[in-house]
Write a structure and sequence with these properties.
The protein is mostly helical. Among the domains are: about 100 residues, no CATH class; about 170 residues, no CATH class. It has 32 helices and four strands. The chain has a four-stranded mixed sheet with strand order 1-3-2-4. It starts with a helix and ends with a helix.
């Protein structure tokens, strides 16, 4: 014992002389050695044979431990749904059964030793009269289950047949999405096909007539005559009956036969997404490996730069600022430092941007959740869907804040030449956005398809990756918002529209600098509002809240005139940008001329009720939409479409002006905080990452889900958390270091010119 203590003391003294990095490497080496010894012992142990780690093909060759058919639709259509536990047996010599036993033995480590069977079930205890222990058990269970097993009763899990009241007919319609088991089908050498079908029925089919009538209100409801089907062909339709058909013909015949036999409806294959014999996605390509290599280079740069930041002296740091650009310590401080106080205090803008981004992320997560819902009534029979569509107005906040901050900065630099101001301002803007933007586009075209797999993966993810590979250059040149086909990272249309409006607004501000800009901007605002109404009338556009109905979300707004002409175009968002410019010029005029805007009763009245007015406008404006079968006139639709955004922007401008003038102190305090500052600094990376995260999270599921409020909220919080976590990584690796490097090189260039 004494020898062991002395040996341990000597080793500890040697370790104490080493640096932290050496001790860390030694620890990792010891862990690796122990792991190798553990695997060596497993190889020598006869219970760990070749089946201890099995391949996908071997795993899915076994009967799955849990296999569930569709539940709600089965029972509502009068079916019988059974659930139970089965014990498998096989004659001697069955290799698959032997593999199952060994695999389960390895998984449970002795629970099923010697080929035993692990069972879970219900037992009823029986005891002779007077057994005090049994009486105690009964009292204990009575207390635990609150009467479930009262008086010696039996708690059972069994089968129930559901009955629905008259008029509950939606479950009799076919679900929009129905998917067979995906991985097990392909691992058993099956053929899996996924596609879109259009249903047709002969005259007199009451169910089909009800589906058409129900789907007539396209703003609220999906088109239930269009259904997506993912089918495992050998399991659903045996090959013997379709010997002479290609896979896609086999798929079309299979779905059509099942619909005819069950509903007396024919199903025509409208769009074949794929027929495959191997899983889609989930494979690392050479391009994906190259992206991982680039990521490794960035991580090494962060480590080296951080070590230099810690080890170098203060004087050396001044000369090597470019080498410290990727220091994680400096980047964290840049993200976490409190926003400086200014006159006027603009910190409330951080809260405004952070809350707007949270709302938009939640809307995107909720909207994508509808792509795989089993019961569409969750959103079709709820007015919250229209409300959520109108909440997309929050994107206008970013245009207002962006143009306001740009105009305010330019007006403060009235002594700088206009040409130099334009060039330097646009250069700073591009350097801030382009590196992170390019990094995400590179990720989309290389690594995104590797993240997961599933029956809807090719339809949703692979298609987006192919679009990014074709249109990447339009994103880097900031005019992808003119794209009317499939999208690459859907929300990035904002970056293009904002860059275009930023340049136009900068030119307009420079032209109006030193002149009476407020009347000119007011006339431009009025002209833009009239122009929106004219566009809506001429193109027969729909209101914003009607734009985001489920089928448009599914099809990524391809061919939707309202989205192309008004929603993502620069002229469709020009009113918000002009509002920010007018706000900056008006505030500067008020401050320089000592004009007391708050002395006017009309302004005070509007300012007092501006916040409630926004809530009323967002919530009640969709209720103006008439219910089917009524339809508003074309002029009324044009007014609904053209005035929704302008009124919202003006109300936001009034709130911002009131806070700038010292009013709404409670709202200012609510919108001011260090947390909001961090979230606002992450606005760009979180805009770039949240949509791919939401798509991967939902599309990777291999079965339609039954949405509920809890599941929807849970999805939103998951996307929020993952988005801000990944946004912080993107900011630390790309956005903050590239901006710091640009500033260092810019400073050195100025110093050289001065010398």
């Amino acid at each position: 014992m004494a020898v062991a203590s002395a040996l341990f003391g000597a080793v500890w003294k040697c370790l104490a002389r080493w640096g932290r990095s050496h001790r860390l490497l030694l620890t990792l080496g010891v862990v690796a050695l122990l792991e190798a010894l553990r695997w060596r012992s497993q190889e020598e142990n006869p219970t760990f044979d070749a089946y201890s780690i099995i391949t996908d093909k071997e795993y899915y060759a076994m009967p799955q431990r849990y296999e569930l058919d569709e539940y709600y639709g089965c029972l509502v259509r009068g079916g019988v749904y059974c659930f139970g536990l089965f014990q498998l047996e096989a004659p001697p010599g069955n290799e698959l059964f032997h593999m199952i036993q060994l695999y389960v033995l390895d998984e449970y480590y002795g629970c099923l030793v010697h080929g035993g069977v692990y069972c879970f079930g219900l037992f009823q205890l029986v005891a002779p009269p007077g057994n005090e222990l049994f009486h105690m058990i009964q009292l204990y269970v009575l207390d635990e289950y609150n009467g479930c097993l009262m008086r010696g009763g039996v708690y059972c899990f069994g089968l129930f047949r559901l009955e629905a009241p008259p008029g509950n007919e939606l479950f009799h319609m076919r679900q929009l999405y129905e998917l067979d088991e995906y991985y097990g089908c392909l691992m058993r050498d099956g053929v899996y096909c996924f596609g879109l079908f259009r249903l047709e029925a002969p005259p007199g089919n009451e169910l089909f007539h009800m589906m058409q009538k129900y789907s007539k209100d396209w703003i609220w409801r999906s088109n239930h005559s269009l259904i997506h089907r993912g089918v495992c062909l050998p399991r659903r339709c045996p090959r013997e009956e379709h010997q002479d058909l290609e896979d896609h013909e086999w798929f079309a015949s299979c779905v059509n036969s099942s619909m005819l036999s069950e509903y007396n409806m024919s199903a025509g294959l409208t769009q074949l997404e794929y027929c495959t014999r191997e899983p889609q996605g989930g494979r690392l390509t050479a391009a994906g490996a190259a992206f991982l290599a680039l990521l490794a280079v960035l991580v090494i740069a962060v480590i080296v730069s951080t070590v230099l930041h810690v080890r170098l002296s203060h004087e050396r740091k001044k000369d090597m600022g470019w080498a410290l650009s990727w220091s994680v310590l400096r980047s964290l401080w840049t993200l976490a430092k409190p926003s400086p106080r200014t006159e006027p205090d603009l910190r409330f803008l951080d809260g405004l941007r952070a809350i707007s981004m949270l709302v938009l992320i939640g809307l995107h997560a909720g909207g994508l959740s509808m792509l795989q819902t089993a019961d569409t009534r969750f959103y079709e029979q709820s007015s919250l869907w229209l409300l959520s569509g109108n909440l997309t107005l929050m994107v206008q906040v970013f245009f207002i804040v962006s143009s306001f901050l740009m105009a305010r900065k330019v007006l403060q630099q009235d002594f700088v030449a206009a040409k130099k101001t334009f060039v330097e301002t646009m250069k700073d803007r591009i350097v801030r956005i382009l590196p992170s933007y390019a990094f995400m586009i590179l990720y989309m075209v290389t690594l995104n398809e590797y993240n997961a797999s599933g029956p809807m993966w090719h339809w949703a993810i692979d298609t987006e990756v192919a679009t990014c590979r074709q249109q990447w250059w339009t994103h880097l040149l900031f005019f992808n918002n003119f794209n009317t086909s499939l999208k690459c990272i859907g929300p990035t249309w904002y970056l293009a529209a904002d860059m275009q409006l930023y340049a136009a607004g900068l030119l307009l501000t420079l032209l109006l600098r030193g002149r009476r800009a407020v009347p000119v901007l007011a006339v431009l605002l009025a002209t833009a509002a009239v122009f929106y109404v004219y566009l809506a009338y001429a193109w027969n556009l729909v209101p914003l809240y009607a734009l985001h109905f489920p089928d448009n979300v599914r099809d990524e707004y391809v061919g939707v005139s309202t989205f192309d002409v008004l929603y993502q175009s620069p002229w469709g968002n020009a009113f918000a940008a002009l509002t920010g410019l007018l706000l900056a010029h008006a505030h500067r005029t008020i401050k320089t001329s000592n004009y007391d805007l708050r002395s006017y009763k009309v302004y005070r009245f509007v300012a007092r009720w501006s916040v409630p007015s926004i809530l009323v406008w967002v919530v009640l404006w969709p209720s103006v939409h008439p219910q089917p079968p009524h339809r508003p006139t074309r002029l009324r639709y044009a007014l609904l479409t053209g005035l929704t955004g302008p009124v919202f922007c003006l109300l936001v401008a009034v709130i911002m002006m009131e806070i700038l003038l010292g009013g709404k102190k409670c709202l200012r305090r609510f919108l001011t905080g260090n947390v909001y500052s961090v979230m606002a600094r992450l606005s760009l990376p979180v805009l770039l990452v949240h949509f791919p995260i939401a798509r991967v999270q939902l599309i990777a599921q291999d079965r339609p889900v039954h949405l509920s409020s809890f599941r929807l909220i849970f999805n939103m919080f998951g996307v929020w958390a993952m988005s801000y976590a990944m946004a912080a990584v993107l900011a630390l690796l790309v956005e903050v270091p590239t901006q710091r490097l640009y500033r260092e090189l810019k400073t050195r260039s100025r110093a050289v010119k001065t010398d």
